[in-house]
Amino acid sequence: MSLNDLWEGAAENPYYPAVAKERQFLVASVLLLTAFVLTGFFGLNRSFKNLPLLGIPASLAFGFGAVYMICAVGVYV
């Protein structure tokens, strides 16, 4: 299989993202707002018990929300 065959075969199978381009801004906004709220709750009562309940989901929501926001506004890293 040559590189040219691989290139032409890939043209027949387009890539479809998990979140459509039109919805990325909405998903990013919801994730960032969720991260902001969870971070606020975690900041009010910081304990070891709240770390897996609030801290980790807040950091994950912020991480994915930031990436989706970067993609939604057109800054591709």
List descriptors.
77 residues; elongated
Structure description:
The structure is a single chain. The chain is an all-alpha fold and 77 residues long. The protein is elongated. It is built from three helices and no strands. The longest helix has 23 residues, at 50-72. It has helices at residues 3-11, 24-44, 50-72. Helix content is 69%, strand content 0%.
Can you give me a brief rundown of this structure?
The chain contains three helices and no strands. It is 69% helix and 0% strand.
- The share of residues in helices is 55-70%
- Annotation, overall tally of beta strands: 0
What is the radius of gyration computed over CA atoms, rounded to a whole number of angstroms?
19 Å
Poorly predicted residue ranges = none
Distance between the termini: 31 Å
Strand percentage, roughly? under 5%
Q: Can you give the mean pLDDT?
A: 89
Largest sheet data: none
Find the structural class using helix and strand composition.
mainly alpha
Q: Tally the helices: what do you get? A: 3
SSE topology string: HHH
Q: Which word captures the global form?
A: elongated
